Amino acid sequence: MAYATVEQASAYHATRLSAKAWSALDSNQQQAALQSASDALDLFAAAHGGWRQDYTQDPPEPLQAACCLEALALTDATTQERIQAQAQGVTSTSMGSASESYNGAAFLSRAGLADPKAALLLAPYLKRAGGGVPIL
């Protein structure tokens, strides 16, 4: 289940500069983007100690907004290329002489989000917002 509906995402983006990009997607693409974004939010939460509680039934507005932001970011082809490169361990690229640097560890080991604003919105809902070790 996605953290935001197509209707909620359309209302969210309608009042922002992202309105044109979101409305260019058909409803099937929008639904798929929202589900993919929700999956990414769940992975991010798992990497930060999990959710403070179950938000699947009635997600708070900031969680819905994070889902809307992440959904749109995931539909961008350039973002997808960047995510794939990071998953392969690419840490930097150069245009002149076309070089790449690798860190030897895949990005997937540290679940990240395509839109950094989404991560900020999630912080209050995560057990360990900063990714630190919980104090017992």
Describe the structure.
This protein is mainly alpha-helical and 136 residues long. The chain is 49% helix and 5% strand. The protein has helices at 6-14, 19-23, 27-47, 61-74, 77-87, 116-122, and strands at residues 90-93, 100-102. It has a two-stranded antiparallel sheet with strand order 1-2. α3 (27-47) crosses α4 (61-74) and α4 (61-74) runs antiparallel to α6. The longest helix has 21 residues, at 27-47. The chain is globular.
What can be said about this structure in brief?
The protein is mainly alpha-helical and 136 residues long. It is built from six helices and two strands.
Features:
136 residues, mainly alpha, 6 helices, globular
Indicate the topology.
Layout: H1 6-14, H2 19-23, H3 27-47, H4 61-74, H5 77-87, E1 90-93, E2 100-102, H6 116-122
Antiparallel strand pairs: 1-2
Helix pairs in contact: 1-4, 3-4, 4-6
Question: What low-confidence regions span 5 or more consecutive residues with pLDDT below 50?
Answer: 106-110
Distance between the termini: 32 Å
Strand order of the largest sheet: 1-2
Judging from the principal axes of the Cα atoms, what is the shape? globular
Overall mean pLDDT = 84
The largest pleated sheet is described as: 2 strands, antiparallel
| Strand residues, percent | 5-15%
Give the class from helix and strand content and strand pairing: mainly alpha
Helix content: 40-55%
The total count of helices amounts to: 6
Radius of gyration: 16 Å
| Count of distinct strands | 2
Write the H/E string, N to C.
HHHHHEEH
